[in-house]
Give the backbone structure.
Amino acid sequence: MSIEEGVDLKKRRFLTVGTAVVGAIGAGFAAVPFIASWNPSERAKALGAPEEADITNLEPGALLRVKWRGKVCWVVNRTEQNIADLKTLTDKLADPNSEVPQQPPYAQNETRSIKPEYAVLVGICTHLGCSPTYRPEVAPADLGDDWKGGFFCPCHGSSFDLAGRVYKAVPAPTNLVVPPHQYLSENVILIGVDGGAV
């Protein structure tokens, strides 16, 4: 082997290693924006952000609508009579004990809530995604003498009680969804953050 062949070999190795290093750096620069594009946009982050519901002026029997993740959420201030009526509906409901996980663990109770007087529900029917109407009146002519207030879906006739539990023999297969939520104070509910029971 001559000296010239040894020098060429060293140059060749240097050029090969140098090319590999430059290629790796270039691939890194190309990969950064590509991987960054996987992150959600600012608009998407805003859509998924938690929403506050101020219930200061929410009177007993009233409903407050809050938009969270592009969905309508309801906060209902149930009266003492509404809460008492929930116990009388068990035999008419498909899932009275909320065994299908449509709510966080802290809302898997008779009222499906952290505080019995406030129901926090996603206002979308679990049948085909229509928005049920709030029907707080007792025994209206169109819903019958057994109706003690709740939600009625006009699209296909599904009905839910004031805890969002679905009645038997209706198209909706499950209870209304209870979103994750927590109380920031006595009068402010943060929807979209799972804070657990107080």
About this structure: The helical segments are 3-36, 42-48, 80-86. Residues 45-191 form a domain with the Rieske Iron-sulfur Protein fold (CATH 2.102.10.10).
